[in-house]
Amino acid sequence: MAFRKDFLWGGATAANQCEGAYNVDGRGLANVDVIPHGKDRFPVMLGNMKMFDFDDEHFYPAQNAIDMYHNYKEDIALFGEMGFKTYRLSIAWTRIFPNGDEDEPNEAGLKFYEDLFKECHKYGIEPLVTITHFDCPMHLITEYGGWKNRKLIGFYEKLVRVLFTRYKGLVKYWLTFNEINMILHLPFMGAGLYFEEGENRDQATYTAAHHELVASALATKIGHEIDPTNMIGCMLAAGEVYPYSCNPGDVWKAYETNRDNYFFIDVQSRGEYPKYALLDLERKGVKIPFVEGDEEILKEHTVDFISFSYYSSKCASVDEKLKTDGNVFASVKNPYLKASEWGWQIDPQGLRTTLNALYDRYQKPLFIVENGLGAVDKPDANGYVEDDYRIDYMREHIKAMHDAVTLDGVDLLGYTSWGCIDLVSASTGEMSKRYGFIYVDRDDAGNGTLKRSKKKSFDWYKEVIASNGENI
What we know:
Largest sheet: 8 strands, parallel, barrel
Strand order of the largest sheet: 1-2-3-4-5-7-11-12
CATH topology: TIM Barrel
Distance between the termini: 14 Å
Number of strands: 14
CATH superfamily: Glycosidases
Number of helices: 15
Strand content: 5-15%
Helix content: 25-40%
Oligomer: single chain
Number of domains: 1
């Protein structure tokens, strides 16, 4: 048997991309709510365009998303039918603390997730909970400057203490921050950072990153104290970067890019800032805002496992003319790979390479918590989609996982495909960029019945899980 007997097969979503109900039961406004669909989406996500509330000129897909808030029982029943062993979801911070700085949590929000976790357990599904999947309460951004302000560590600490206490016995697997390295690439989406004119962006970004790293270590400490059986992980937007050629300049460029990508996980897994990062930040004139006790907290409370997203590999070159669009991360087109409809290069072998690179570096259990193919699905009159392209994509990636485990000895805890039910795309805000085994009747403008229907991949993945990855 290739995969461990308790291998955690399942799927993954994020609150802001599926829940909707943005103003229901006391929920507050978050950065992820006010990111619009359309041409202004990237300027807002980058922190270049100020959008701290809704206006009448834009459509905001997160407001209603696929309304899982009111449909979670139906959705979890479908996950149960597929045989999910785990379901990765995220907590909307503003359901628990609507403004982020209240003394007492919002009971309606706590009850919603408690009911959802119990619904998972009804089907034998283990919740895997991301504490912060890019969410930051807007009040903390407007009043405190978001994660640039050290006070956010205390607000986050209060949040995790409430979560670990309330859901003790219901949740065992936790992730502190989703794709923590995204703060460098999409600062407003990743951490609610907006930059004023003339502000030192590097200093502001790495100050916020340091506060998140300390907060993550504190969450690990608190989670282990409240329940020693808790397994707490970090989360990286991964994907090995290849040199475009054997030009030594390209090789070094790829090496540097990979290392920069690992920087946050080096801190969360090894417990200290790596020397290369300290020297690089010094050259940039960035001062890390250490206070007394930070180094000890980081060193003593490292994560139990490393989780990551993998959609594609990337290429790096010293030749700036080769850069291409298609990913959030600037990359160079790999001539040996095909690409998705959104320009993401499809590379199953790259998953095996990434698994080995991470395991060699950290020697901790790994967990693939996002992987999948964003594609335009064309349903028939009954909402059925023959998504063989998605099955092919996932089959090849599962084969690569199998090789990493059986041939290379990688310790892999589980696999949750991204967007197991169609949801709003984080990068583009589209519904037409679909990942799910379950089709949701909703278009890019928010129209549709929200009716759920099974795609061909639904029954295929059900068989994959039932056979523990043997029948693919």
